[in-house]
Design a protein that fits this description.
The chain is built from eleven helices and 19 strands. With 426 residues, it is of the alpha/beta class. The chain has two domains: 3-54 and 213-278 and 370-424, FAD/NAD(P)-binding domain; 62-210 and 282-366, 2-Layer Sandwich (D-Amino Acid Oxidase, Chain A, domain 2). The strands form two sheets. Strands 4, 5, 6, 7, 8, 13, 14, 15, 16 and 17 form a ten-stranded mixed sheet that branches. Strands 1, 2, 3, 9, 10, 11, 12, 18 and 19 form a nine-stranded mixed sheet that branches. The longest helix has 16 residues, at 393-408. The protein starts with a strand and ends in an 18-residue tail after the last helix.
């Protein structure tokens, strides 16, 4: 029986053993993992379970993708992308002054030594994702949400993709099966793709989720049916207490928690700022368009390298996702960023029916080195942080939860978690 507490009764819920703030994919994975470790958990979110960013991603489980966004030479592409109305990145001019510090750190992270460190940290999080999700879904009746798949990177320019390039060499060195394929082979694998694509790189051993929003809800429902609670309310402040306990001030009263996990994505920095943690977190808006009755099908997730977006067939249709916009947290959506997916999707899949497209916007929590913060909140022993996953939130969620579970349970892990420490920014 699910145990939920709504806005009207949140004030009556005064205590919690472990309170997880944020009921997206990171939060529900943390809650379920902690629960399986024997802890009593409460999920809290101002919206519903899986209602925000976790609902709208491209559904790719990136077992063999661990490239930081700050790639060497990216600065050469940025002016062209920003000037292109169909480009993958948009920046509202009024927001630029607030991004200068973040951009400076982002540029520093294009250095090869920083790149290698970030890539190694991301590999640790992403590589076991398919198997770990299957473990979380076992016995739920929804195991088919996670499917084995290739990840295809396709281009109309044969010179753009080369297995000697750093991203592919990283994958090969890590043990991935990666191969370059020609247009004929690509057409056999994905017959509905445009014939303009002349080359692709195919990555084996990945996975995809057919309904990301449903995945979050299934795991969240498992938390509730196993004795967990859910509180729907907004959090104002975390107040550490002597001995490690935390008072959580919400719009419906206070909750006294023994321990707190902050997993509220792009909104997390508003809570950590009041803890004297100056974390350079940006809200990177992602837009998608999902086409019901698309008339075409993709067997795998396809990344259009030329236009930097991803298309996947979903339970609700065909979804095109990947565009990014940097602006204020509460700024009104720019739905033109979603509308461009009609043109891009049609160019990728000429038979695509774009008449029934539903737009969506969510906020990715972006850090300048692409590596999330996972671990204690500085000198506040009762607070743990789990946010900043950027484009890898879905893939990195189960291992993030495993790390949080080990830290709270004082268990030793056979991996180096120092790369995820908040101290690299403070």
């Amino acid at each position: 029986m699910s145990k939920a507490v709504t806005n009207s009764s949140a004030a009556n819920t005064t205590t919690a053993d472990i309170l997880i703030i944020g009921a997206g994919i990171i939060g529900v994975c943390c809650a379920r993992t902690l629960q399986l470790n024997g802890h009593r958990v409460t999920l809290l979110d101002r919206e519903g379970i899986g209602a925000a960013c976790s609902h709208g991603n491209a559904g790719v489980l990136c077992s063999w993708s661990f490239d930081p966004a700050a790639k060497p030479g990216l600065w050469k592409e940025l002016p062209r992308w920003l000037a292109d109305p169909l480009g993958p990145i948009a920046l509202r001019p009024s927001h630029l002054p607030k991004m200068l510090g973040w951009l400076w750190q982002f540029i520093r992270n294009t250095q090869s030594n920083r790149q290698a460190k970030s890539a190694a940290a991301l590999f640790t999080l992403n590589n076991p994702t398919v198997e770990m999700f299957r473990q979380l879904l076992q016995g739920s009746g929804h195991e088919s949400l996670v499917q084995d798949a290739f990840y295809l990177f396709a281009t109309r320019n044969g010179k753009r993709l080369n297995l000697n390039q750093l991203p592919w060499q990283r994958r090969l060195q890590a043990g991935a099966t990666v191969e370059a394929i020609d247009a004929a082979t690509l057409g056999e694998i994905e017959p509905h793709l445009s014939k303009e694509y002349v080359k692709a790189i195919l990555v084996h051993g990945q996975g995809r989720v057919t309904n990301p929003g449903r995945l979050v809800k299934v795991i969240g429902d498992k938390v509730l049916s196993s004795g967990g609670r859910f509180i729907q309310t907004a959090v104002h402040e975390l107040i550490p207490r002597t001995g490690g306990a935390v008072t959580v001030s919400t719009q419906n009263g206070s909750i006294e928690a023994k321990q707190v996990v902050v997993a509220s994505g792009a909104w997390s920095s508003r809570l950590t700022a009041k803890l004297d943690l100056n974390i350079p977190l940006q809200a990177e808006r992602g837009y998608h368009m999902e086409f019901a009755n698309p008339g075409v099908q993709l067997n795998n997730s396809v990344n259009d390298v030329d236009r930097a977006f991803v298309a996947s067939s979903m339970a609700g249709g065909l979804r095109c996702a990947g565009t990014s916009e940097f602006t204020e947290l509460e700024a009104a959506p720019n739905w033109r960023r979603a509308d461009i997916m009609k043109r891009l999707g049609k160019a990728m899949l000429p038979g695509l029916n774009v008449d029934e497209g539903t737009p969506w916007m969510g906020l990715r929590p972006a850090l300048p080195d692409s590596v999330p913060i996972i671990g204690p909140a500085g000198h506040h022993p009762g607070i743990f942080l789990a946010f900043g996953h950027g484009h890898y939130g879905l893939s990195g969620a189960p291992m993030t939860a495993r790390i949080i579970g080990a830290l709270i349970g004082a268990e030793r892990m056979n991996i180096d978690i120092s790369a995820y420490s908040v101290e690299r920014f403070t």
